[in-house]
Request: fold
Amino acid sequence: MALNSWEKAIQLDPEWLDSRLARASLLERDQRLQEAAQEWRLVIEWLKNRGFFTDRPNAELQRIEKK
Reply:
């Protein structure tokens, strides 16, 4: 149910980073690792496009890819 709410939030505002971070975490919790990794890639791209550092998101992506 929480995942559905965050997905709805993304549909309403794809630029809201918090919804993508929450979605990535919930997907990982549900063992939907490929989808979680893709969400982290979107977060990384969002941050890079705006000139932010991506150390934590990159670390999260690498951790998920190891699973």
User: Anything to note?
Assistant: Residues 44 and 57 are 6 Å apart (CA to CA). The helical segments are 2-12, 17-29, 33-49, 55-66. The chain has four helices and no strands.
